[in-house]
Amino acid sequence: MNLDTNEVHPVILNDEVVDVQKQSRNHATELIEDFMIAANEMVARKLEPVSSLRRIVKTPERWDRIVQLAASLGGHLPGEPDSKALNDFLLQRKAADPVHFADLSLAMVKLIGPGE
Predict the structure, then answer these.
(1) pLDDT for the residue numbered 5
(2) Are 104 and 6 a contacting pair, CB within 8 Å?
(3) Which of 1, 27, 61, 70 sits at 20 to 30 Å (Cα–Cα) from 106?
(4) Which has the closest alpha carbon to 86: 70, 71, 72?
(5) Which residues, in sequence order, are CB contacts of 67 under 8 Å at separation 6+?
(6) For the chain (length 116 residues), average pLDDT per consecutive 10?
(7) What's the CA gap between 116 and 112, in Å, rounded?
(8) 3-state secondary structure string across the chain
(9) Cα 105 to Cα 109: distance, rounded to the nearest angstrom
């Protein structure tokens, strides 16, 4: 799922935090994220026949709110949860309004809810 969250890191001078700066994103950081996802997927596939702990993201309980949010931004999502439709909507919003995409991403993460 294409989401963008603002990550910040502290600027430390003489053992004191003097500033907080937004982590910049570029093709290298995106490539690293893609490799991390691919590695996680491969490990999950290899561990499938073995007893192990896994994090599962359930179907969003607040899908109706996600649909309403998309509609308020001119998008359309089906009444039943659909990860591809949601991802397509997010890609469209990122292209249409990259400045505010991190805000939309945060709202989506909160509406999707935690994994188990």
Answers:
(1) 64
(2) no
(3) 27
(4) 70
(5) 77, 78, 79
(6) 69 87 80 88 87 77 93 95 93 92 89 81
(7) 12
(8) CCCCCCCEEEEEECCEEEEEEECCCCHHHHHHHHHHHHHHHHHHHHHCCCCCCCCCCCCCCCHHHHHHHHHHCCCCCCCCCCHHHHHHHHHHHHHHCHHHHHHHHHHHHHHHCCCC
(9) 6
What the block records as the tokens of 26 is 């570029």
pLDDT of residue 76: 95
And the tokens for 110? 């909160």
Q: Let me know: does 19 contact 3? Beta carbons within 8 Å.
A: no
CA-CA distance, 69 to 86, in Å (whole number)? 11
